[in-house]
From TrEMBL:
Taxonomic lineage from the root: Bacteria, Bacillati, Actinomycetota, Actinomycetes, Propionibacteriales
Ranges in coiled-coil conformation: none
Record InterPro entries: Endonuclease-I, His-Me_finger_sf, YhcR_N
Domain (Endonuclease YhcR N-terminal) ranges: 35-138
Record-given protein name: Endonuclease I
Protein's UniProt keywords contain Aminoacyl-tRNA synthetase: no
C-alpha cells in the first residue's frame, strides 16, 4: 500500500502531461524500469526499451555467437545469465558507432560475462530477436564475481572434509571439454594482459608477450600444464590434458626449466623467470602467483578422481613424485594459497572459463576457505 502511494505522483504527472499534449519520451520511460532479456525477446514490436543482461558473445549469424577472436565492434549478445550458451535465449544488440570504442568486443573483450544496460529499438538483428538503433549503454565495470553462487554450489552447502570434496567433484565435473588445439585461443582470452589486449601474461615469469608469439621456438610462449601432465600420465588427452583451469601461457624455456617438478620452497634462481627458484626435485614460481598455482593444483585434485578413465589425482607432502598421480608439497601449497589470496586477474580468469569455455568453476577461487576444510 505504501509503495502504491509512493508511485502515485509520478503516474499523475504522466497523465497530466499527456492531457496537455506533452509526450513522455522513450528515454525517460526507459530510465524508470529496465526489462530482462527474455522479456525483450518476446516483445519484438519496434518499441524503445532499456534491457539489462550479461554480455555472452558477439553474433555473427542468426544462430552463431562467437566468444573469442571477435571480428569487429559492431554487435554483442545479451542473456539473462552469464553462463547462457543457447542463442535462442540471447538478444542480439547492434552497437551504433558512438559506442563501439567502449562496448565493442574486439576492443573490449573483457566485457564478456559482465552485466550491462542498453537502450534501443526492440527489432530483429541478424534475423534474430534484437535491439537495434541503440542510444545508450551503461555498466560493464567488472564481471559478476560469482553468478548465482547459491545454485552453482548448492550441492556443497553445509558439507566439510571428504563430503565437501565429493560434492565439489560432482559439481565441477559438469563441463565442456576443449581439444588441445582449442586451448591456444582460449588462453589468449583467459590470460589476456589487462594493460595490453594484444598480449597474454605468462604465469611463472609474469612477462607480457604478444598473443601471436605462441609456439615452440625460443622466447615463444606455450601451454604449460601446472599439474605436470606426467604426474598421472594423462599427456594432452582431452580431459585433464586440456583443462584450462590449470593450463597457462609460459615462456618455452621457463616451461622446460619447470619440467615436471613438484612444488616447494627453495632452490636457485631460474633464468628468465624473476622470483622463481628450482632445484633437482622442486620448483617455486614468483610470489605473486604462488596462490594461483596452489588453487589450480587443488582444483585438479578434486576434478579428477579416477572415475572418468583418467588417474585419481591427489596431493601429498612429498617431492620427486615422478609419474605417480601425485603432486606435492601439500603443506607448502596450502601456505602459498593463504599468503596469496585470489586477485582480480585470477577471478576474471575463473569467470571467463565459466562463462565462455568450460562452464565450470575453480571452487577454491570462489571459496578459498574450502582448502583447509578438505585438507586440514
Amino acid at each position: 500500500m505504501l509503495r502504491s502511494r509512493a508511485l502515485r505522483p509520478a503516474l499523475i504527472l504522466t497523465v497530466v502531461l499527456a492531457l496537455l499534449g506533452f509526450g513522455v519520451t522513450a528515454s525517460t520511460a526507459a530510465t524508470t524500469a529496465s526489462i530482462t532479456v527474455s522479456t525483450a525477446i518476446g516483445r519484438q514490436d519496434g518499441s524503445t526499451a532499456t534491457v539489462e543482461g550479461y554480455v555472452v558473445g558477439q553474433p555473427t549469424a542468426t544462430n552463431t555467437v562467437v566468444r573469442s577472436n571477435f571480428p569487429n565492434d559492431y554487435a554483442l549478445a545479451l542473456a539473462d545469465s552469464a553462463s547462457q550458451t543457447s542463442t535462442s535465449s540471447m538478444l542480439y544488440v547492434q552497437i551504433t558507432s558512438a559506442f563501439r570504442s567502449s562496448y565493442g568486443l574486439q576492443s573490449n573483450p573483457g566485457l564478456l560475462g559482465q552485466k550491462i544496460t542498453v537502450t534501443g529499438k526492440l527489432s530483429a538483428y541478424f534475423s534474430h530477436a534484437g535491439l537495434t538503433s541503440t542510444t545508450a549503454f551503461s555498466g560493464g565495470g567488472s564481471p559478476d564475481p560469482d553468478p548465482d553462487p547459491g545454485d552453482y554450489y548448492a550441492g556443497a552447502e553445509g558439507k566439510t572434509g571428504a563430503a565437501l570434496k565429493s560434492a565439489l567433484h560432482t559439481i565441477i565435473s559438469n563441463q565442456t571439454k576443449l581439444s588441445y588445439d582449442q586451448v591456444w585461443n582460449a588462453l589468449k582470452d583467459t590470460d589476456q594482459d589487462p594493460a595490453n589486449t594484444n598480449n597474454v601474461i605468462e604465469i611463472y615469469s609474469g612477462r607480457s608477450i604478444s598473443k601471436s608469439l605462441n609456439g615452440g621456438d625460443a622466447d615463444d610462449w606455450n601451454r604449460e600444464h601446472v599439474w605436470a601432465k606426467s604426474h598421472g600420465d594423462f599427456g594432452t588427452a582431452t580431459g585433464p590434458g586440456t583443462d584450462i583451469h590449470h593450463l597457462r601461457p609460459e615462456d618455452v624455456s621457463v616451461n622446460a626449466a619447470r619440467g615436471s617438478l613438484d612444488f616447494d620452497n627453495g632452490g636457485t634462481a631460474v633464468s628468465q623467470c624473476s622470483g622463481c627458484t628450482a632445484d633437482s626435485d622442486s620448483f617455486a614460481p614468483r610470489a605473486a602467483v604462488r596462490g594461483d598455482v596452489a588453487r589450480m593444483i587443488f582444483y585438479m585434485a578434486v576434478r579428477y578422481s579416477g572415475d572418468d578413465g583418467f588417474a585419481d589425482l591427489e596431493l601429498n607432502n612429498s617431492v620427486g613424485n615422478g609419474t605417480a598421480p601425485y603432486i606435492g608439497k601439500l603443506s607448502v601449497l596450502k601456505a602459498w594459497a593463504a599468503a596469496d589470496p585470489p586477485d582480480t586477474f585470477e577471478k576474471r580468469r575463473n569467470e571467463v572459463i565459466y562463462t565462455t569455455y568450460q562452464h565450470n568453476r575453480n571452487p577454491f577461487i570462489d571459496h578459498p576457505e574450502w582448502i583447509t576444510s578438505i585438507w586440514p
